[in-house]
Bifunctional diguanylate cyclase/phosphodiesterase
Amino acid sequence: ARLAGELHDAILGGQLRLLYQPVYDLVTGRMHGAEALVRWQHPSRGFVSPADFIPVAEKSGLIVPLGAWVLREACSQLARWQAALGADAVEAINVNVAVRQLRETGFVDEVAAVLSDTGLCPANLIIEVTESSVADGPQVTDTLRTLHDMGVRLALDDFGTGQSSLSLLRAFPVDVLKLDKSFVDGIADGADRGRLAVAAAVAQLVEYLQLKAVAEGIESEAQLIRLRDMGYRYGQGYFMARPLPPGECAELMAAAP
Ligand code: G
Ligand code: G
Ligand code: MN
Ligand code: NA
């Protein structure tokens, strides 16, 4: 409760920051986009990890104003990058959206307003949702369909870890599958045939369904090569880049091949 109160002040008081982790095209080596990841610089507690405060924000409902701030700030940042470096320098911004936000009746209007205010094309925005939020119910499914029909792209985050991955793909207009890091770990040593099989099956599924595949949490060149050979066109991970402040991210964009 204490943390929730402080989080409320943090949202209003400008203690939140966004870092951006590049998403690379593994074939061309170009930066395709970046995922916005929120950070909280607390005045006395110091750095508070999103792994600690996002669950608090979800429980208290503060995720709604917090998420609204993240969405607007991330889209504004992409618009600034495109204005400074050209629209070809970076195509997409990935924003994590919690199920509580998707349940709000005003969410679609909020997205439309942010796109209009920032001048972004809907396809520039990739909304990341988890499998459990997609399975929340008809209202959330409706919201996701409306966003997809507007041209906003939808990514299923942490893919492969949920319960009902395959049936979800038929019920919901997904554009991007993000293979969870747990399947990427150890993929180059062939440590675990089960995880390897999931990674390969997801790559095939993406090809059949004509989606985009992003492999998350790539930490070595051997993993990158293995995943690219499996058919993963896009990847993210510490091997390429950590989550970065916007200026450092822009330097990597400007230095693109
Ligand atoms: O950046 P890091 O790996 O520490 O993030 C930890 C968790 O917090 C991840 O599950 C990530 O998806 C989540 N997260 C980070 N930023 C946001 C955000 O802006 N909104 C939501 N809903 N989750 C976020
Ligand atoms: O749940 P979601 O996939 O949105 O969370 C992404 C989280 O993974 C972020 O907290 C980010 O900091 C973290 N992350 C990104 N790349 C790597 C990586 O290569 N290794 C590890 N350990 N974590 C990563
Ligand atoms: Mn994510
Ligand atoms: Na993930």
In short: Residues 2-254 form a domain with the TIM Barrel fold (CATH 3.20.20.450). The mean pLDDT is 93. Residues 35, 96, 128, 157 surround manganese (II) ion (ligand 3) (CB under 6 Å). The CA atoms of residues 64 and 100 lie 7 Å apart.
